[in-house]
Amino acid sequence: MDSHKKSMSEHQKAPWYYLFLLILAGESVFILPFVLARVFRPTVLDVFGLDNIQIGFMGSVYGIVALLSYPFGGPLADKFPPRKLIAVALWLTALGGLVYATFPSYLVLKILYGYWGFTTIFLFWAAMIKATRVWGGTSSQGKAFGFLDGGRGLVGALFGAMGVLIFSIFITSEIAKATIVESRVAFRYVILVSSGIVVLVGIFVWFFMRLDKKLEQSIILDKITVSQIKKVMRLPAVGLLMVIILCAYVGYKITDVFSLYAQDVMQYNQVKSAQVGTFLLFIRPVIGVGIGILADRSQTTYWLVVSFVISFFGALLFATGIITASATVLFFISILIVATGVYAARSLYFAVMERGQIPLELTGTAVGLISLIGYTPDIFAGPTMGYLLENSPGTVGHQHVFWMLAVFSLIGGIAAWFYFRLYRKK
Questions:
Q1: What are the backbone dihedrals phi and psi of residue 425, each rounded to the nearest 5 degrees, phi first?
Q2: How confident is the model over 164-216, as pLDDT tens digits?
Q3: Residues contacting residue 102 through CB under 8 Å, at least 6 positions apart
Protein backbone atom coordinates (compact mmCIF):
# COMPACT_ATOMS: atom_id res chain seq x y z
CA MET A 1 0.00 0.00 0.00
CA ASP A 2 2.85 2.40 0.88
CA SER A 3 4.57 1.82 -2.44
CA HIS A 4 1.23 2.52 -4.19
CA LYS A 5 0.97 5.81 -2.26
CA LYS A 6 4.58 6.64 -3.02
CA SER A 7 4.15 6.05 -6.75
CA MET A 8 0.95 8.11 -6.72
CA SER A 9 2.73 11.07 -5.11
CA GLU A 10 5.43 10.80 -7.77
CA HIS A 11 2.72 10.91 -10.43
CA GLN A 12 1.79 14.40 -9.32
CA LYS A 13 5.02 15.70 -10.85
CA ALA A 14 3.79 15.52 -14.45
CA PRO A 15 4.14 19.15 -15.69
CA TRP A 16 1.35 21.56 -16.69
CA TYR A 17 2.21 21.46 -20.40
CA TYR A 18 1.64 17.67 -20.25
CA LEU A 19 -2.01 18.34 -19.37
CA PHE A 20 -2.18 21.10 -22.00
CA LEU A 21 -1.06 18.68 -24.76
CA LEU A 22 -3.47 16.06 -23.45
CA ILE A 23 -6.35 18.55 -23.71
CA LEU A 24 -5.31 19.57 -27.22
CA ALA A 25 -5.09 15.95 -28.36
CA GLY A 26 -8.24 14.93 -26.47
CA GLU A 27 -10.48 17.11 -28.59
CA SER A 28 -8.52 17.25 -31.86
CA VAL A 29 -8.98 13.53 -32.39
CA PHE A 30 -12.79 13.94 -32.34
CA ILE A 31 -13.03 17.10 -34.52
CA LEU A 32 -13.51 15.25 -37.83
CA PRO A 33 -15.98 12.54 -36.72
CA PHE A 34 -18.01 14.62 -34.25
CA VAL A 35 -17.35 18.33 -33.71
CA LEU A 36 -17.84 19.43 -37.33
CA ALA A 37 -21.10 17.48 -37.60
CA ARG A 38 -22.26 19.00 -34.30
CA VAL A 39 -21.49 22.60 -35.24
CA PHE A 40 -22.54 22.30 -38.90
CA ARG A 41 -25.40 19.80 -38.58
CA PRO A 42 -27.75 21.45 -41.15
CA THR A 43 -24.82 22.00 -43.57
CA VAL A 44 -23.60 18.39 -43.25
CA LEU A 45 -27.13 17.13 -44.03
CA ASP A 46 -27.13 19.30 -47.19
CA VAL A 47 -23.64 18.81 -48.63
CA PHE A 48 -23.56 15.03 -48.09
CA GLY A 49 -27.24 14.60 -49.05
CA LEU A 50 -28.13 12.86 -45.78
CA ASP A 51 -31.08 12.80 -43.40
CA ASN A 52 -31.03 12.59 -39.58
CA ILE A 53 -31.49 8.81 -39.54
CA GLN A 54 -28.50 8.28 -41.88
CA ILE A 55 -26.27 10.49 -39.72
CA GLY A 56 -27.47 8.42 -36.76
CA PHE A 57 -26.44 5.18 -38.49
CA MET A 58 -22.99 6.54 -39.35
CA GLY A 59 -22.59 7.15 -35.63
CA SER A 60 -23.77 3.59 -35.01
CA VAL A 61 -21.07 2.11 -37.24
CA TYR A 62 -18.54 4.21 -35.31
CA GLY A 63 -20.08 2.96 -32.05
CA ILE A 64 -19.95 -0.72 -33.00
CA VAL A 65 -16.25 -0.52 -33.95
CA ALA A 66 -15.59 1.55 -30.82
CA LEU A 67 -17.36 -1.04 -28.69
CA LEU A 68 -15.13 -3.81 -30.05
CA SER A 69 -12.09 -1.57 -29.52
CA TYR A 70 -12.65 -0.64 -25.83
CA PRO A 71 -11.79 -3.99 -24.18
CA PHE A 72 -8.69 -4.48 -26.39
CA GLY A 73 -7.52 -0.86 -26.37
CA GLY A 74 -7.74 -0.74 -22.56
CA PRO A 75 -4.98 -3.27 -21.81
CA LEU A 76 -2.94 -1.74 -24.67
CA ALA A 77 -2.85 1.52 -22.66
CA ASP A 78 -1.43 -0.40 -19.69
CA LYS A 79 1.38 -1.81 -21.90
CA PHE A 80 2.63 1.23 -23.91
CA PRO A 81 3.44 4.87 -23.05
CA PRO A 82 0.33 7.05 -23.59
CA ARG A 83 2.25 9.60 -25.69
CA LYS A 84 3.01 7.12 -28.50
CA LEU A 85 -0.51 5.71 -28.72
CA ILE A 86 -2.06 9.20 -28.72
CA ALA A 87 0.22 10.59 -31.47
CA VAL A 88 -0.34 7.64 -33.83
CA ALA A 89 -4.10 7.85 -33.26
CA LEU A 90 -4.09 11.55 -34.23
CA TRP A 91 -2.17 10.95 -37.47
CA LEU A 92 -4.38 8.07 -38.57
CA THR A 93 -7.57 10.04 -37.76
CA ALA A 94 -6.37 13.01 -39.86
CA LEU A 95 -5.80 10.64 -42.78
CA GLY A 96 -9.54 9.92 -42.75
CA GLY A 97 -10.16 13.66 -43.19
CA LEU A 98 -8.73 13.44 -46.72
CA VAL A 99 -11.44 10.90 -47.61
CA TYR A 100 -14.12 12.99 -45.85
CA ALA A 101 -13.15 16.05 -47.95
CA THR A 102 -14.06 14.22 -51.19
CA PHE A 103 -17.76 14.11 -50.10
CA PRO A 104 -17.96 10.33 -50.58
CA SER A 105 -21.10 8.20 -50.88
CA TYR A 106 -23.16 7.15 -47.85
CA LEU A 107 -21.57 3.66 -47.95
CA VAL A 108 -18.02 5.10 -47.90
CA LEU A 109 -19.05 7.47 -45.07
CA LYS A 110 -20.16 4.48 -42.98
CA ILE A 111 -16.82 2.73 -43.63
CA LEU A 112 -14.98 5.96 -42.76
CA TYR A 113 -16.86 6.25 -39.46
CA GLY A 114 -15.94 2.64 -38.68
CA TYR A 115 -12.28 3.48 -39.38
CA TRP A 116 -12.54 6.50 -37.06
CA GLY A 117 -14.06 4.24 -34.40
CA PHE A 118 -10.82 2.25 -34.51
CA THR A 119 -8.35 5.17 -34.57
CA THR A 120 -10.03 7.23 -31.84
CA ILE A 121 -10.86 4.39 -29.45
CA PHE A 122 -8.53 1.40 -29.84
CA LEU A 123 -5.39 3.51 -29.87
CA PHE A 124 -6.49 6.66 -28.08
CA TRP A 125 -9.25 6.51 -25.50
CA ALA A 126 -7.87 4.53 -22.53
CA ALA A 127 -4.42 6.09 -23.07
CA MET A 128 -5.92 9.57 -22.65
CA ILE A 129 -7.86 8.67 -19.47
CA LYS A 130 -4.81 6.98 -17.95
CA ALA A 131 -2.53 9.91 -18.75
CA THR A 132 -5.03 12.29 -17.12
CA ARG A 133 -5.21 10.16 -14.00
CA VAL A 134 -1.39 10.15 -13.81
CA TRP A 135 -1.34 13.96 -14.00
CA GLY A 136 -3.97 14.29 -11.24
CA GLY A 137 -2.15 12.13 -8.67
CA THR A 138 -4.00 11.42 -5.42
CA SER A 139 -5.33 14.89 -4.66
CA SER A 140 -6.29 16.55 -7.94
CA GLN A 141 -8.48 14.07 -9.81
CA GLY A 142 -11.42 16.50 -10.04
CA LYS A 143 -9.13 19.22 -11.34
CA ALA A 144 -7.38 16.87 -13.81
CA PHE A 145 -10.61 15.58 -15.39
CA GLY A 146 -12.43 18.91 -15.06
CA PHE A 147 -9.58 20.69 -16.85
CA LEU A 148 -9.39 17.88 -19.42
CA ASP A 149 -13.07 18.07 -20.32
CA GLY A 150 -13.32 21.84 -19.96
CA GLY A 151 -10.17 22.30 -21.98
CA ARG A 152 -11.39 19.89 -24.62
CA GLY A 153 -14.58 21.94 -24.75
CA LEU A 154 -12.58 25.11 -25.34
CA VAL A 155 -10.50 23.46 -28.09
CA GLY A 156 -13.74 22.19 -29.68
CA ALA A 157 -15.25 25.68 -29.44
CA LEU A 158 -12.20 27.25 -31.09
CA PHE A 159 -12.31 24.65 -33.88
CA GLY A 160 -16.05 25.35 -34.24
CA ALA A 161 -15.54 29.13 -34.37
CA MET A 162 -12.67 28.71 -36.85
CA GLY A 163 -14.86 26.42 -38.96
CA VAL A 164 -17.75 28.91 -39.01
CA LEU A 165 -15.30 31.67 -39.98
CA ILE A 166 -13.70 29.65 -42.82
CA PHE A 167 -17.15 28.55 -44.02
CA SER A 168 -18.52 32.11 -44.11
CA ILE A 169 -15.39 33.39 -45.94
CA PHE A 170 -15.85 30.90 -48.77
CA ILE A 171 -19.60 31.38 -49.14
CA THR A 172 -19.74 34.24 -51.62
CA SER A 173 -23.51 34.70 -52.00
CA GLU A 174 -26.16 35.34 -49.32
CA ILE A 175 -25.91 32.54 -46.72
CA ALA A 176 -29.61 31.70 -47.08
CA LYS A 177 -29.20 31.40 -50.89
CA ALA A 178 -25.93 29.43 -50.92
CA THR A 179 -26.00 26.55 -53.40
CA ILE A 180 -24.90 23.00 -52.57
CA VAL A 181 -21.79 23.51 -54.74
CA GLU A 182 -20.78 26.65 -52.81
CA SER A 183 -21.45 24.99 -49.47
CA ARG A 184 -19.30 22.02 -50.51
CA VAL A 185 -16.35 24.19 -51.54
CA ALA A 186 -16.52 26.08 -48.25
CA PHE A 187 -16.96 22.96 -46.13
CA ARG A 188 -14.06 21.21 -47.90
CA TYR A 189 -11.73 23.97 -46.66
CA VAL A 190 -13.11 23.52 -43.14
CA ILE A 191 -12.31 19.75 -43.28
CA LEU A 192 -8.80 20.15 -44.76
CA VAL A 193 -7.68 22.87 -42.33
CA SER A 194 -9.00 20.79 -39.41
CA SER A 195 -7.10 17.70 -40.66
CA GLY A 196 -3.86 19.67 -40.95
CA ILE A 197 -4.16 20.90 -37.36
CA VAL A 198 -4.80 17.34 -36.10
CA VAL A 199 -1.51 16.19 -37.75
CA LEU A 200 0.34 19.09 -36.11
CA VAL A 201 -1.03 18.24 -32.65
CA GLY A 202 0.19 14.63 -33.13
CA ILE A 203 3.71 15.89 -33.80
CA PHE A 204 3.67 18.03 -30.61
CA VAL A 205 2.42 15.09 -28.53
CA TRP A 206 5.06 12.69 -29.85
CA PHE A 207 7.96 15.03 -29.08
CA PHE A 208 6.83 16.91 -25.99
CA MET A 209 4.35 14.85 -23.94
CA ARG A 210 7.14 12.96 -22.19
CA LEU A 211 7.20 11.70 -18.62
CA ASP A 212 10.15 11.04 -16.35
CA LYS A 213 11.65 7.63 -17.35
CA LYS A 214 11.04 6.07 -13.91
CA LEU A 215 7.49 7.36 -13.81
CA GLU A 216 6.75 6.06 -17.33
CA GLN A 217 8.00 2.60 -16.34
CA SER A 218 5.94 2.52 -13.12
CA ILE A 219 2.61 2.95 -14.95
CA ILE A 220 3.29 0.29 -17.61
CA LEU A 221 2.68 -3.43 -17.04
CA ASP A 222 4.72 -6.03 -18.95
CA LYS A 223 1.66 -8.15 -19.45
CA ILE A 224 -1.98 -8.16 -18.39
CA THR A 225 -3.19 -11.40 -16.82
CA VAL A 226 -6.72 -12.83 -16.76
CA SER A 227 -6.69 -12.62 -12.95
CA GLN A 228 -6.00 -8.87 -13.15
CA ILE A 229 -8.97 -8.42 -15.52
CA LYS A 230 -11.17 -10.44 -13.12
CA LYS A 231 -9.95 -8.32 -10.20
CA VAL A 232 -11.03 -5.16 -12.02
CA MET A 233 -14.41 -6.65 -12.98
CA ARG A 234 -15.18 -7.51 -9.34
CA LEU A 235 -14.83 -3.89 -8.16
CA PRO A 236 -18.28 -2.39 -7.35
CA ALA A 237 -17.10 0.96 -8.76
CA VAL A 238 -16.71 -0.60 -12.22
CA GLY A 239 -20.34 -1.80 -12.46
CA LEU A 240 -21.76 1.49 -11.19
CA LEU A 241 -19.56 3.54 -13.51
CA MET A 242 -20.89 1.56 -16.49
CA VAL A 243 -24.42 2.80 -15.72
CA ILE A 244 -23.34 6.34 -14.74
CA ILE A 245 -21.33 6.87 -17.92
CA LEU A 246 -24.01 5.34 -20.15
CA CYS A 247 -26.62 7.81 -18.81
CA ALA A 248 -24.29 10.82 -18.84
CA TYR A 249 -23.18 10.01 -22.38
CA VAL A 250 -26.77 9.87 -23.65
CA GLY A 251 -27.08 13.43 -22.31
CA TYR A 252 -23.92 14.47 -24.12
CA LYS A 253 -25.14 12.96 -27.41
CA ILE A 254 -28.44 14.84 -27.08
CA THR A 255 -26.61 18.20 -27.00
CA ASP A 256 -25.98 17.49 -30.73
CA VAL A 257 -29.58 18.50 -31.52
CA PHE A 258 -29.42 22.04 -30.10
CA SER A 259 -28.28 23.56 -33.42
CA LEU A 260 -31.08 21.66 -35.19
CA TYR A 261 -33.57 22.82 -32.51
CA ALA A 262 -32.47 26.38 -33.29
CA GLN A 263 -33.30 25.81 -36.97
CA ASP A 264 -36.51 23.75 -36.61
CA VAL A 265 -38.17 25.39 -33.60
CA MET A 266 -36.50 28.80 -33.20
CA GLN A 267 -36.44 29.39 -37.03
CA TYR A 268 -32.71 30.35 -37.24
CA ASN A 269 -30.71 30.19 -40.51
CA GLN A 270 -27.68 27.88 -41.11
CA VAL A 271 -25.02 30.24 -39.74
CA LYS A 272 -27.11 31.28 -36.72
CA SER A 273 -27.80 27.58 -35.98
CA ALA A 274 -24.08 26.80 -36.17
CA GLN A 275 -23.45 29.69 -33.77
CA VAL A 276 -25.82 28.05 -31.24
CA GLY A 277 -23.71 24.87 -31.53
CA THR A 278 -20.56 26.93 -30.99
CA PHE A 279 -22.11 28.79 -28.00
CA LEU A 280 -22.65 25.37 -26.45
CA LEU A 281 -18.99 24.51 -26.95
CA PHE A 282 -17.93 27.68 -25.13
CA ILE A 283 -20.08 26.78 -22.09
CA ARG A 284 -18.25 23.46 -21.67
CA PRO A 285 -14.81 24.78 -20.60
CA VAL A 286 -16.31 27.09 -17.98
CA ILE A 287 -18.31 24.24 -16.44
CA GLY A 288 -15.49 21.69 -16.67
CA VAL A 289 -12.93 23.89 -14.92
CA GLY A 290 -15.44 25.20 -12.36
CA ILE A 291 -16.81 21.79 -11.37
CA GLY A 292 -13.28 20.27 -11.28
CA ILE A 293 -12.01 22.83 -8.76
CA LEU A 294 -15.25 22.59 -6.73
CA ALA A 295 -15.16 18.79 -6.65
CA ASP A 296 -11.56 18.61 -5.36
CA ARG A 297 -12.49 20.91 -2.48
CA SER A 298 -15.34 18.65 -1.32
CA GLN A 299 -16.42 15.31 -2.84
CA THR A 300 -16.33 14.44 -6.53
CA THR A 301 -19.03 11.79 -5.94
CA TYR A 302 -21.47 14.33 -4.42
CA TRP A 303 -21.12 16.75 -7.36
CA LEU A 304 -21.71 13.89 -9.80
CA VAL A 305 -25.16 13.37 -8.22
CA VAL A 306 -25.90 17.12 -8.40
CA SER A 307 -25.00 17.25 -12.10
CA PHE A 308 -27.59 14.58 -12.98
CA VAL A 309 -30.28 16.44 -11.00
CA ILE A 310 -29.54 19.65 -12.96
CA SER A 311 -29.66 17.92 -16.35
CA PHE A 312 -32.98 16.24 -15.37
CA PHE A 313 -34.64 19.61 -14.66
CA GLY A 314 -33.14 21.19 -17.79
CA ALA A 315 -34.50 18.32 -19.90
CA LEU A 316 -38.01 18.92 -18.51
CA LEU A 317 -37.92 22.56 -19.69
CA PHE A 318 -37.50 21.39 -23.30
CA ALA A 319 -39.67 18.27 -23.00
CA THR A 320 -42.74 20.16 -21.78
CA GLY A 321 -42.71 22.35 -24.92
CA ILE A 322 -42.68 25.74 -23.18
CA ILE A 323 -39.76 26.94 -25.33
CA THR A 324 -41.19 28.38 -28.56
CA ALA A 325 -39.78 30.54 -31.38
CA SER A 326 -40.60 33.73 -29.48
CA ALA A 327 -38.95 32.65 -26.19
CA THR A 328 -35.34 33.46 -27.14
CA VAL A 329 -34.14 34.27 -23.62
CA LEU A 330 -35.75 31.14 -22.15
CA PHE A 331 -34.17 29.08 -24.97
CA PHE A 332 -30.65 30.20 -24.03
CA ILE A 333 -31.25 29.88 -20.27
CA SER A 334 -32.55 26.33 -20.79
CA ILE A 335 -29.53 25.43 -22.96
CA LEU A 336 -27.37 26.73 -20.13
CA ILE A 337 -29.13 24.52 -17.54
CA VAL A 338 -28.96 21.33 -19.65
CA ALA A 339 -25.34 22.02 -20.61
CA THR A 340 -24.34 22.63 -16.97
CA GLY A 341 -25.73 19.25 -15.89
CA VAL A 342 -24.48 17.29 -18.90
CA TYR A 343 -20.97 18.78 -18.99
CA ALA A 344 -20.49 18.57 -15.21
CA ALA A 345 -21.38 14.84 -15.22
CA ARG A 346 -19.04 14.30 -18.17
CA SER A 347 -16.18 16.10 -16.39
CA LEU A 348 -16.54 14.03 -13.22
CA TYR A 349 -17.38 10.47 -14.17
CA PHE A 350 -13.76 9.34 -14.56
CA ALA A 351 -12.57 11.62 -11.74
CA VAL A 352 -14.37 9.33 -9.24
CA MET A 353 -12.19 6.31 -10.19
CA GLU A 354 -9.64 7.21 -7.52
CA ARG A 355 -12.31 7.29 -4.80
CA GLY A 356 -13.73 4.03 -6.17
CA GLN A 357 -10.38 2.34 -5.35
CA ILE A 358 -9.47 1.35 -8.93
CA PRO A 359 -5.65 0.70 -9.04
CA LEU A 360 -3.74 3.23 -11.16
CA GLU A 361 -1.65 0.68 -13.08
CA LEU A 362 -4.87 -1.08 -14.17
CA THR A 363 -6.63 2.14 -15.23
CA GLY A 364 -6.51 1.27 -18.94
CA THR A 365 -8.05 -2.16 -18.39
CA ALA A 366 -10.76 -0.70 -16.12
CA VAL A 367 -11.54 2.08 -18.62
CA GLY A 368 -11.79 -0.51 -21.41
CA LEU A 369 -14.32 -2.59 -19.45
CA ILE A 370 -16.37 0.39 -18.19
CA SER A 371 -16.47 1.95 -21.67
CA LEU A 372 -17.71 -1.29 -23.20
CA ILE A 373 -21.11 -0.58 -21.61
CA GLY A 374 -20.77 3.14 -20.84
CA TYR A 375 -20.36 4.23 -24.45
CA THR A 376 -23.05 2.06 -26.06
CA PRO A 377 -25.03 5.30 -26.71
CA ASP A 378 -22.63 5.69 -29.67
CA ILE A 379 -24.64 2.84 -31.20
CA PHE A 380 -28.23 3.55 -30.16
CA ALA A 381 -28.50 7.27 -29.30
CA GLY A 382 -28.01 8.63 -32.85
CA PRO A 383 -30.58 6.39 -34.60
CA THR A 384 -33.05 6.80 -31.71
CA MET A 385 -32.82 10.59 -31.89
CA GLY A 386 -32.98 10.47 -35.70
CA TYR A 387 -36.09 8.26 -35.53
CA LEU A 388 -37.81 10.54 -32.99
CA LEU A 389 -37.02 13.65 -35.05
CA GLU A 390 -38.01 12.23 -38.46
CA ASN A 391 -41.22 10.56 -37.17
CA SER A 392 -42.55 13.68 -35.47
CA PRO A 393 -41.15 16.62 -37.47
CA GLY A 394 -40.73 20.00 -35.77
CA THR A 395 -41.29 20.79 -32.10
CA VAL A 396 -42.90 17.46 -31.10
CA GLY A 397 -39.91 15.38 -32.24
CA HIS A 398 -37.56 17.58 -30.21
CA GLN A 399 -39.81 17.20 -27.14
CA HIS A 400 -39.55 13.41 -27.45
CA VAL A 401 -35.74 13.67 -27.57
CA PHE A 402 -35.71 15.69 -24.34
CA TRP A 403 -38.04 13.22 -22.58
CA MET A 404 -35.38 10.64 -23.45
CA LEU A 405 -32.79 12.89 -21.75
CA ALA A 406 -34.98 13.23 -18.64
CA VAL A 407 -35.31 9.44 -18.24
CA PHE A 408 -31.57 8.79 -18.60
CA SER A 409 -30.70 11.67 -16.24
CA LEU A 410 -32.97 10.12 -13.60
CA ILE A 411 -31.38 6.65 -13.91
CA GLY A 412 -27.86 8.14 -13.92
CA GLY A 413 -28.68 10.19 -10.82
CA ILE A 414 -29.80 7.08 -8.94
CA ALA A 415 -26.60 5.18 -9.87
CA ALA A 416 -24.45 8.21 -8.90
CA TRP A 417 -26.27 8.36 -5.53
CA PHE A 418 -25.37 4.69 -4.84
CA TYR A 419 -21.73 5.41 -5.78
CA PHE A 420 -21.71 8.42 -3.44
CA ARG A 421 -23.13 6.34 -0.55
CA LEU A 422 -20.73 3.44 -1.16
CA TYR A 423 -17.53 5.51 -1.23
CA ARG A 424 -18.50 8.32 1.14
CA LYS A 425 -15.77 7.39 3.62
CA LYS A 426 -12.32 7.15 2.09
A1: -95, 135
A2: 888 888 876 665 566 788 888 888 999 999 999 999 999 999 998 877 667 66
A3: none
Q: Please give the domain boundaries of the chain with CATH numbers for all domains.
A: 14-422 (1.20.1250.20)
Contact status, residue 60 vs residue 378, Cβ threshold 8 Å:
yes
CA dist., res. 178 & res. 412, Å (int): 43
Tell me what percent of the residues of the chain surpass a pLDDT of 90: 43
Contact 361, 78 (CB under 8 A): yes
Give pTM, 2 decimals.
0.81
Binning the chain into helix, strand and coil, the percentages to the nearest 5 are 85, 0, 15
CB hemisphere CA count around 131 (13 angstroms): 30
CA–CA separation, 310 and 405 (whole Å): 12
Rounded to whole angstroms, how far apart are CA atoms 342 and 284? 9
Pairwise CA distance, residues 323 & 337, whole Å: 13
| More confidently predicted of 281 and 123 | 123
